[in-house]
Design goal:
It is built from 13 helices and 21 strands. It is α+β, with helices and mostly antiparallel strands. Helix 8 packs parallel to helix 10 and helix 11 packs parallel to helix 13. It is elongated.
């Protein structure tokens, strides 16, 4: 931990010793590498070791209390965040029966009894403590507060330690646009509202809601897009803020206008970017699982916050709907962000403050959706691949982002992703125009080098034209100089790409693809990898190679048959 965190921890430790609630804090915060490996009581889980378990197996291990099961460090951390409790409580509330929750409650009670605030892997980060508070708030709501009295008393005592720790220790952060300060603030707000009689509750509630507004506002641009992080990180922060806001509404506690405005803008961005089924494009890091269990964000508040009585209940008139929830589920939604441009076929929204463009058209069987990220985003949770173009159709993802390099080091090299490379360097992209006209949508990008090198004097202009099940790229080089170039298009999982008489042909279990090319370049197929679920799977990459010179033009057209 850094000096600031150590100093804050020292103040918190002294306060805890004076409070005398029976918990024994660690003498010093322990680094993740040096900390003693703990055991989760009642589960018999030695942490960490191999092999890895998937999420389903993780929940199964909870139901087989006492069975030794091996976990990776990441899974151990997830267990210590208690993200499994809301999922089991939700399953029981939806008809799974109390037998699905009882093992989890036993494990939770024994975890609290054995826990020592500030000690061990569960207390490495303030954001993890905040995620526990959020998990408790969501799970208790799913169980309608029906917990055994001894467990409730233990939970409240531990919550006071969590609130004091989270108030004192700053969240780790890569900058003002990091998602972790928002999680910490939301955890404080939910903890203070869930346990209003605790000594720290009033301060936690007030500071949590105030900090949450500033944190979410810092994460997003004026049009609601993430300032430098991934959509998944923004979604996690929005879910946490929704839960905190719902608890505040249920307790008749006003929320700051800054929080309300930032939440509306971020919700609008996620609504536009999402695929309508809860999915977000595979862009950037996914810092943690969805708080709401991976259900579509625009239906989750309906099924969770309303059903739990934390927002106006079923049958409430539209004017009583929380505007953020209404926006996410599509009931009389306000539109706080950029408006969609529409033609006979296409709807297009451009988030110019951040460089995102989302275009969507109805085609046979569903919708054709293209996402363009023009701005260069930096940071731990960011998507660093400016100029990336993603395209999916009802039956298949055609052009994909391979996935996050932080979770899969194999994807760390820029060449693992799509884009324009000149002189061995990726060209940065700036959004120039985005418009719809008749049956087409058109996006133009200006790409150039942000430094020296062989391609420093060259500029590339890329025009994307979308027409239903067809996406065309026209790349032109301008400026001065001559340098080798590569244009790269990673395809989604499931595709097989082969050379044909006129270009290339792609085969997918659900679709067929035709690729035509024109221009002075060598067109080849390379083997790549994309993230599918939690694993890497092989997928083809179409590559055009040549030498860039002013006046040179290349055309590439992808069409689903």
């Amino acid at each position: 931990m850094g000096l600031l965190e150590r100093a804050a921890f020292g103040v918190w430790r002294k306060a805890r010793s004076l409070a005398g609630r029976g918990f024994v804090p660690a003498e010093e915060p322990v680094s993740p590498v040096d900390c003693p490996v703990g055991r989760i009581p009642a589960l018999g889980l030695d942490l960490p070791s191999e092999p890895a378990l998937g999420a389903d197996a993780l929940l199964d291990s909870l139901l087989r209390a006492g069975a030794p099961t091996a976990l990776t460090p990441a899974q151990a951390r997830a267990l210590h965040r208690h993200v499994w409790w809301p999922g089991l409580a939700r399953a029981a509330a939806l008809g799974g029966g109390p037998e699905r929750v009882e093992p989890a409650l036993r494990a939770l009670g024994e975890w609290i009894a054995a826990d020592r605030p500030g000690q061990g892997p569960a207390w490495e980060h303030a954001s993890d403590a905040a995620l526990r508070l959020l998990s408790w708030g969501l799970a208790v709501a799913w169980q309608r507060g029906e917990l055994p009295d001894p467990l409730w008393r233990r939970l409240a005592g531990s919550a006071e330690a969590h609130l004091q720790f989270t108030l004192a220790v700053p969240a780790l952060s890569e900058g003002p646009a990091d998602h972790r300060p928002a999680l910490q603030a939301a955890g404080l707000a939910v903890g203070g509202l869930l346990f209003p009689e605790l000594p720290s509750a009033r301060r936690a509630r007030a500071e949590g809601l105030s900090r949450l507004g500033h944190a979410l506002d810092a994460m997003t641009t004026a049009d609601g897009a993430p300032r430098c992080g991934s959509p998944s990180a923004l979604l996690l922060a929005v879910e946490a803020a929704l839960l905190a806001r719902a608890y505040a509404r249920a307790a008749s506690v006003p929320t700051p206008a800054l929080l309300d405005g930032a939440l509306l803008r971020a919700a609008w961005f996620l609504r536009v970017l999402g695929d309508g089924f809860g999915g977000l494009p595979n862009i950037g890091e996914r810092p943690a699982p969805s708080l709401f269990g991976g259900v579509a964000p625009w239906s989750t508040p309906w099924g969770t916050l309303w059903a739990l009585g934390l927002s106006p209940g079923e049958g409430a008139p539209d004017h009583a709907v929380d505007p953020v929830v209404g926006l996410l589920i599509g009931k009389a939604p306000p539109k706080p962000g950029p408006k969609a441009e529409r033609s006979k076929t296409w709807g297009l929204v451009s988030f110019r403050d951040s460089g995102w463009v989302v275009a969507q058209a109805e085609v046979k069987g569903g919708s054709s959706r293209a996402v363009v990220l023009a701005a260069q985003h930096a940071g731990l949770w960011a998507h660093p691949d400016a100029g990336q173009v993603l395209w999916d159709l009802p039956k298949a993802t055609v052009l994909a982002d391979p996935g996050a390099w932080g979770q899969h080091p194999e994807l760390a090299e820029p060449e693992a992703h799509g884009g324009v490379f000149v002189g061995g360097r990726r060209f940065g992209a700036v959004l120039e125009t985005a418009r719809v006209d008749g049956r087409d949508a058109t996006v133009t990008l200006r790409l150039s080098s942000d430094g020296g090198g062989p391609g420093a004097g060259l500029i590339a202009r890329r025009e994307l034209k979308l027409a239903g099940a067809r996406l065309s790229f026209t790349d032109r080089f301008e400026g001065e100089g001559n340098a080798p170039f590569e244009l790269r298009w990673p395809l989604g999982a499931g595709w097989t790409l082969t050379q044909a008489e006129k270009g290339f042909e792609g085969v997918h279990p659900q679709a067929k693809l035709s690729v035509s090319t024109d221009g002075e370049a060598e067109w080849v197929i390379e083997s790549g990898e994309v993230v599918e679920g939690e694993s890497l799977v092989s997928a083809p990459v179409l590559v055009a190679r040549g030498r860039a010179a002013p006046g040179q033009r290349l055309k590439t057209r992808f069409e689903i048959k």
